[in-house]
Fold this sequence. Notes:
The chain is an alpha+beta fold.
Amino acid sequence: MRAQGTVCRTAAGRNLPRGTVVQHPIGMNEPTTPKPVHPATSIGHVHLKVADLDRALAFYHGVLGFEITLRLGQSAAFLSAGGYHHHLGLNTWESLGGSAPAAGTTGLYHTAILYPTRAALADALRRLIAANIALEGASDHAVSESLYLRDPDSNGVELTWDRPRGQWPKDENGAVMMSTRPLDLRSLLATA
């Protein structure tokens, strides 16, 4: 469906109705950018739709320890670590009282929260144990160690720390090799 008078200009200078899908001239098997994104680029924050703001805050603030930087009544809150404006946004704008997506649907697999050290990840595990929050998994990926769980809205959460890059295993061509082995939780807890 076309909106009246709304057009966009292609690289070739043609005007097309806004929303028209234009096939990229480069084949699907070829790179679509001339160079990779800048290496200092990172994911800044995640904003989650939640059913109950207080329940979500009890988890992200009360259990994991993120600081509330701004709260907008019962509709939204922003949380951070270390004084950043926000790493997490939580809102009920479209989800108040809602339920989690059904299994087998698309969406966010998990949010990964990166801790600076193994000891900090161990502290997170202690917090989960104290709050009686079950893990869905715990893995040693050779480059990182990770804890997997669900937040109160059934969003997947990965709590992780990265080993120093110099310790990452590599193949004969220098490519990073990841794996999935069980994580020794007793060893992790002994770190804190």
